[in-house]
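Notes from the pairing session

We agreed to fold both candidates in a single pass and log them together. This is the raw record for the first candidate, unedited. Please don't reformat it; downstream parsing expects exactly this layout.

Candidate A
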Amino acid sequence: MARRRAPGRGPFFLALLVALRLALLDADPARACTGGEIIPDQFYNNCRRLVEGVQEVAVARRVGHPDAELLTGRLVKTWIDFYLEHGEAPPPFHADIATGTWRLAMREVGLSIRRLIDQAPGHDDGEPAVLPLYLLVQPEARQTVHAWLDAWTASPPAELITGPTVASCTAWLEASVIRPVLGLRGFLAAEFPNSAERLLDHLEAIRQRWRPVRQAAPPEQEALLQTTWPSLLALIGTERTAWRTRLLLEP
């Protein structure tokens, strides 16, 4: 049987890969090294291979490339190799990331790769798997993302639990949820548009739940507030935890 050719890398394919490849290549791993068994160059190269594998599979599946199955098998092997080498604990130069947090993030990368493979072509471009890897080789980007995530709070002050008002809750939502989420969305939009869109979807879900409370007539508003506010906080907390877990922060 004739050997199958590797997929061609035309302009469309290269355009998808170039941004993250440049980011990975521009990183200076030597500066981050603090000693230990793992050589920084090796870690960065492993990240690069995994990013390329995810994106190759996403493109091949989307365009119906005949080598999609072959690339999928290669991606699975690349992920297994990556996990066996890095999955259980952060390398020494990422010692600021707790082991438990690292393991959760690596688990999310693996689940994202599985979703990419299992879902119908075109439904997933691999962003959820690529974004954490991007942050691991871009310390400044990770610092910015973590600052926005830390500003995004899920627990309001005690007075908004024991005696919330529509005005005070609205002000808290604006300062502690909406602004940080918009900031994070703005930072991610250029390179990770689907992740940015998910953040907008979350904000829209908040607005849809909160709008009836703000627009209710005074006799009904208090009762609506008491029933809506706890469920809204739960929604915000669940989404915030998901983002922190994916992006290498403690939930």
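Candidate B (folded immediately after A)
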Amino acid sequence: MASLNVLLLPEPGSGHLMSLIEAGKRLLGHGGRSHAHEFTVTVLVVRPPTPESATEVDAHVRRVEASGIGVRFHHLPAEAPPTDCGGNLQAFKSRYLELYKPHVRAAARELRASALVIDFFATTVLDVARELAVPAYVYFTSTAGLLALTLRLPALEREVDADFEEYEGTVDVPGLPPVPAGSIPGFMGRKSSPNFTWFVYHGKRFMDPDGIIVNTAAELEPGLLASIAEGRCVPGRRPAPPLYPIGPVLDLGGASDEACVRWLDAQPRASVVFLCFGSLGWFDAAKAREVAAGLERSGARPPGRGRLRDALRVELDAGEPVARRPAGAVAAVRGAAPERVRARGRHGRGRAAAGGQEAGQLGGGRGAGAGGAEPDGWWVGGGAEGAGEGRGDEGRVPEGRGGGRVVARRAGEAAGGDPRGCGGGDSDRIG
């Protein structure tokens, strides 16, 4: 029986690592043992650049190894991270992974790789796969919408003669309605920033692999997937490589007694709205108020209350610990928001509105400043709805203590705490 060894190369942050491991589990489940081949899945572990993120990744690797699911790990030799990225997180990730090309080449030879699946920040490694004549696939952890935009970005760079946030018109992304230029995700950066340069580079390289694995479902984004497959996102070029929508990729294992789960289970049916926009973005106060206004204008009515306009007001950094909030007030639980909790919306406890993983993050916490950490958020409920806020600058790692928060509270409650909006979690981590 022939043996096939598929190598997975995630970005060193735990969020991308866990997502790619879950994708590897699906590969094992669908084709791990067939009549003709035996699959093995080996994760190439890139050493995270900070001790904190390394500890988090090591703990997750140990948990997966102890689970007996069959995913193997191969730790690559450590490289010193680049020091001249000026806080440009996307450029940092891309350059850091580029340093590992020799180690990926050596591992592919040693482990006799049959295929290589790489994180979308690692497109420079496609050169290694081509050199070794190994089939290569890009794993895109976010939505087809962001994939379409990234493929379109090299052409948009030429078509739009100003920074997107200053351009008054709309941009065309096939499969989407006209997009206000100012709505282009801020983490892509200004045109002059290294972040933007790297996103343009990745957008070009996405045309080179043997396929793109996307963390979405065909039923969720059929128009976007069709636009990408037909080549409409890359004018004048061939259609995109074959697309494999395998999402949503969710980690539903582990303990279910976390505080956010217990709190959610205690809420009235259909009384919770949870918004999660990923772990890399920040919303300033104005953006958070837009979200709150949108919820109010939607006409949603908390059970037993009037319209949201009458039930809520938004404050910056209310500063009142959960345990001290008056009975009957809107409860908030800050912490990791695992996929199994998000999936609970299917059971009637809440409604979920989610964007791409890279699009922004409502709520403070370590996800706001960590780049690859578990998404942190504010779960707001108790018969009302709210939004969270963090801060950032063009996709850069904010200095000092960052993240901030906006919580929704019942009208009439006194403001408390420091209104600066600079609490929430450590922001001195990359990865």
